[in-house]
Write a structure and sequence with these properties.
This protein has 413 residues and is an alpha/beta fold. It contains 18 helices and ten strands. It has three domains: 64 residues, SP0561-like (Orthogonal Bundle), CATH 1.10.3910; 180 residues, D-Maltodextrin-Binding Protein, domain 2; 118 residues, D-Maltodextrin-Binding Protein, domain 2, CATH 3.40.190. Helix 1 crosses helix 2, helix 6 runs antiparallel to helix 16 and helix 13 runs parallel beside helix 18.
Length: 413
């Protein structure tokens, strides 16, 4: 349990102490909390646990989200790093989300960099939340721009595909030529630019600074006499029906995973994966479940979480032979803002930040100066820019999600 609140605490007590809890609950469907009288009356009579059960919300995952939100606010207050002002008159606006394991150390480096560059800090507002908080606020602001690129932030940073390629969101601006890759790099890290993969956008619009690599872990105590899987294709086999856990609530990773399965194994592959789904755990839950003799035989997870396995665990990490599926960490820059945001881009592409991502967070960097310490067989599986440019990725995400859940026969909330 976290150190801030208990599930048995009332909704009123938690929202009174932590205003961010109110916003998070409202985003999960508790619209009545917008009325402060309702919050003070009804909120005193219902515990957080009861409230979450009423909407079939996973309490463990909600607690993690709220804990992240509280710590994010405390860190911002303690360091002077402020969230973006919604009616900001700042010259430079930066927003997005960062992978949870590297968010705080990266923000510390950013704070130090801004102190050294006071002229930039004075005219900048930014909001870089933990990935667990999602991108709902960013999406709302993009939709509210109604096609006016001047209303967009100058720089966006996030993993995943839906925000950056959905035609209702960034896709419309991409088609209009609003964005430009201003990294200035002639070549990416050879781990990401070789005869098998190239993350450089041939249209020169999108920049990728790193990747969340998706692998899997096999629970040898649960596997039984089934053959040991070593590839994505193996996981689609009927022998793993109702045996696989994957992070369905981590939309960035879930969308990346299912899009790649569709790209390389077709609609049938997505349906096979759906039929093989047993549970939708957070990666940390997967590691915890690995200590038990029940549960999923295979857990699909970001590579980072394989580092949490202890020597006595029955979990065996597997880097798939086709390559680890990646959810790219995109950096999207408005061409009209390139002069004023170039220092930010240079900072995010610096060797120091690249090493922080790769070493501390196990999120391989595309910076050519960074050694990702990957073995030759640790390759990557990538959608490919041709596939991205030839398809409506936003529509494909929705279609793939429908196919997956129809085959799974279950929903996760």
């Amino acid at each position: 349990m976290n150190k801030y609140f208990k599930l048995t605490d009332t909704v009123y007590d938690i929202t009174e102490k932590y205003p961010e809890a109110k916003e998070l609950l409202i985003s999960h469907g508790f619209e009545q909390l917008k009325n402060d009288l309702m919050r003070k009356t009804m909120g005193r009579t219902i515990s957080l646990e009861t409230a979450l059960k009423s909407r079939k919300i996973n309490p463990e995952l909600f607690v993690q989200k709220l804990t992240d939100a509280i710590e994010q606010e405390q860190y911002s207050t303690g360091t002077g790093l402020s969230a973006m002002k919604k009616e900001s008159g700042a010259e430079i606006r930066v927003e997005g989300v960062l992978p949870c394991p590297i968010r705080l150390p990266l923000l510390e480096k950013l704070e130090s960099w801004l102190k050294e560059n006071g002229d930039i800090a004075a005219k900048t507002d930014y909001d870089l939340k933990a990935a667990s908080m999602g991108l709902d606020g960013t999406k709302e602001r993009v939709l509210a721009a109604h096609g006016d690129a001047e209303k967009l932030s100058d720089l966006y940073l996030s993993a995943g595909f839906d925000l950056f390629f959905d035609h209702k969101l960034m896709g419309r601006y991409r088609d209009a030529g609003v964005f430009e890759d201003i990294s200035g790099l002639e070549h990416l890290n050879p781990d990401f630019e070789n005869e098998h993969i190239n993350l450089r956008d041939p249209k020169g619009q999108y920049t990728i600074i790193g990747a969340v690599a998706c692998v899997f872990m096999v629970n040898t105590q649960v596997l039984g006499d089934r053959r040991f899987p070593s590839s994505w294709e193996d996981l689609l086999s009927p022998e793993f029906e109702n045996s696989i856990s994957l992070p369905v609530r981590d939309l960035d990773m879930f969308n990346a995973l299912t899009l790649h399965i569709r790209r390389f194994f077709g609609k049938e592959g997505v349906e096979k994966l759906g039929r093989n789904l047993l549970s939708g755990m957070h990666p940390a839950q997967m590691v915890k479940a690995g200590k038990q003799q029940q549960g999923p035989a295979v857990s699909i997870t970001p590579y980072f979480f394989t580092q949490m396995i202890d020597d006595k665990s029955p979990l065996v990490p597997v880097w798939p032979k086709e390559g680890a599926i990646i959810s790219p960490i995109f950096l999207l820059t408005k061409a009209a803002s390139k002069d004023k945001v170039k220092p930010f881009v240079d900072f995010l592409f610096s060797k120091e930040v690249g090493e922080l991502m790769s070493v501390n967070g196990k999120f391989p960097s595309t910076n050519p100066l960074v050694n990702n310490h990957l073995a030759p067989e640790q390759s990557f599986l990538w959608l490919g820019w041709d596939y991205i440019h030839e398809n409506d990725i936003g529509a494909l995400i929705l279609e793939t999600e429908r196919d997956f859940y129809a085959a799974a026969g279950k929903e996760f909330v």
